Amino acid sequence: MSAWWLHWRYAKSAAQTPLACFYTDPPINQNQCVADAELLALDFETSGLNPQSDRLLSMGWVLISRGRIRMASAGHCIIRSDHHSVGQSATVHGLLDADLEQGISLPEALNSLLAMLRGRMLVVHYSPIEAGFLQKACQMIHGVPLPLQIIDTLAIEAQRRAHIHDSQGALRLHACRERYGLPRYRAHNAAIDALACAELLLAQVAHIGGAHSVTLKELLRRSR
């Protein structure tokens, strides 16, 4: 959906929600270089891969400001679920039903994330997951979609390696990081994976041309 169509269709409905600023703030300047930009790296842990039938279990994020990761900005929350079990997905992310009982509500988690995201472009590794679950949450809680511009580190890497025959799994986050000499972290923790994604993006930017040369528009183009 185009930004113009979203504004025309949903701006009035969004006016009394935490999404209002995303419809009224000036658009992010895509011509600015990474060294001048504010980005937010994000990761979700979920009960499955389908936003329509599965649930958000945890969120992790960290700010990339002017080409640097700001660890003081890092956030992580577990989302409470009163009536559902994590089931077999616990073998992937390690979250148990008892962990979720101590979490916060989805509206509280979502609104904390939206506050961090204002004025910033989103950075994820494989955008269909984060975009799908984020849009579902916004629609369910606030009744309107979130205008999103997403930089996808997996898509950037896929373009870089379009002419290389890779083994299965070569575009997973840890595999991409290894090619840039980045350390291997424990996977499937939202906070750690958000940091891992942020570090990967900065490594990719350095390879493409550097934070003072690479623009947000260039990263968005490579994310398609």
In short:
This protein has helices spanning 3-14, 20-24, 90-93, 97-101, 106-117, 127-142, 153-160, 173-179, 190-208, 216-222; strands spanning 38-46, 56-65, 68-78, 121-124, 150-152. By secondary structure, the chain is an alpha/beta fold. The protein has a 5-stranded mixed sheet with strand order 3-2-1-4-5, with helices on both faces.
Features:
5 strands; 224 residues; five-stranded mixed beta sheet; 17% strand; single chain; Nucleotidyltransferase, domain 5
List the helices and strands and how they pair.
Elements: H1 3-14, H2 20-24, E1 38-46, E2 56-65, E3 68-78, H3 90-93, H4 97-101, H5 106-117, E4 121-124, H6 127-142, E5 150-152, H7 153-160, H8 173-179, H9 190-208, H10 216-222
Helix pairs in contact: 8-9
Structure overview:
The structure is a single chain. The chain has helices at residues 3-14, 20-24, 90-93, 97-101, 106-117, 127-142, 153-160, 173-179, 190-208, 216-222; strands at residues 38-46, 56-65, 68-78, 121-124, 150-152. By secondary structure, the protein is an alpha/beta fold. The protein has one domain (31-222): 2-Layer Sandwich (Nucleotidyltransferase, domain 5), CATH 3.30.420. The chain has a five-stranded mixed beta sheet with strand order 3-2-1-4-5, with helices on both faces. Strand 4 (121-124), helix 6 and strand 5 form a beta-alpha-beta unit. Helix 8 (173-179) runs parallel beside helix 9. The chain is globular, with a radius of gyration of 17 Å. The two termini are 14 Å apart.
